[in-house]
Amino acid sequence: MHTLKTSLGRLRIIGLWEGWSFLLLLGVAMPLKYFADWPLGVRVVGMAHGVLFMLYVLAAIQTALDRDWSWKRTAIVLAASLVPAGPFVVEAKMLKEESELSVES
Q: In the chain, where are the structural domains located?
């Protein structure tokens, strides 16, 4: 279970929410805007995604500073937020592993 007590835990939680908001924006809200002439979905989901994106970037920077990440690792985590489902891949490949290493220490 992720915890809000650590910067890594916050990043993991925010990353999951940010990833889902991006998929909802691209997969539901935008099609509704263009195919059903209903722009309100993009306005609402887009705003939520924007806020979550900014929180993700801040959480990634905070985690990078707290855990002394390399520039490469930080860039990968930040770039993941620009790709649909990117935060899920980072979660599965990098953050979960790092979290498990923290527990073992």
A: 7-99
